[in-house]
Amino acid sequence: MVTKFKTVCLVSDLTERGVAIGFAIDVDRFLNGFVVKFDGQPYAFINRCPHVRTELDWVPGVVFDEQKSFLSCATHGALFDPTTGVCIRGPCINQSLVALPVRVIGEEVCVAF
Ligand code: FES
Predict the structure, then answer these.
(1) Do 71 and 65 form a contact (C-beta atoms < 8 A)?
(2) 20-74, pLDDT tens digit by residue?
(3) Beta carbons of 45 and 81 less than 8 angstroms apart
(4) CATH of span 5-112
(5) Which of 11, 29, 39, 49 is in the most buried spot, having the most CB atoms within 10 Å?
(6) Which of 59, 68, 76, 63 is nearest to 35 (CA)?
(7) Hey, which of 47, 48, 52 would you mutate to test ligand 1's pocket, going by the most ligand atoms within 8 Å of its Cβ?
(8) pTM, entire model
(9) How far apart (Å, rounded) are the C-alpha atoms in residues 95 and 90?
């Protein structure tokens, strides 16, 4: 897999602690990523929980907990720091989502994968 920055959405597509924007990383391996906006910054992760490696969201793009403080896995409720991906509560505590490098270039949100 070649790693380079690719445009996944526009800055204006992201809402603070809102719905995540998903993108395909490797269609053949059913591997996807998502980007969210938290405290004004975009953060991107591979959409794969470290617990049993399912995607976090049952409803597409719904990855924040009710308080909009943490990313949440819909399967068993793990909570992750949205700035680092580290699990702070749940069955995979201290494990981490795989964070992807993000750059904002003009209006474009670009993620390396
Ligand atoms: S699959 Fe995510 S917490 Fe279990």
Answers:
(1) yes
(2) 999 999 999 999 999 999 999 999 999 999 999 999 999 999 999 999 999 999 9
(3) no
(4) 2.102.10.10
(5) 49
(6) 63
(7) 52
(8) 0.96
(9) 10
Q: How far apart are CA 63 and CA 53, in angstroms?
A: 15
Q: Where are the domains of the chain?
A: 5-112
Integer Cα distance of 40 and 49 in angstroms = 24
Amino acid at 20: A
Length of the chain: 113
Ligand 1 pocket list (CB less than 6 A): 49, 51-52, 54, 73, 75-76, 78, 90-92
Atom of ligand 1 nearest to the CA of 92: 3
28's torsion region: left (phi>0), alpha (psi -120 to 50) or beta?
Answer: alpha
- Paired with 33 in beta bridges are 23, 46
Shortest-distance Cα residue to atom 3 of ligand 1: 76
Pull the structure tokens for residue 29: 């391996």
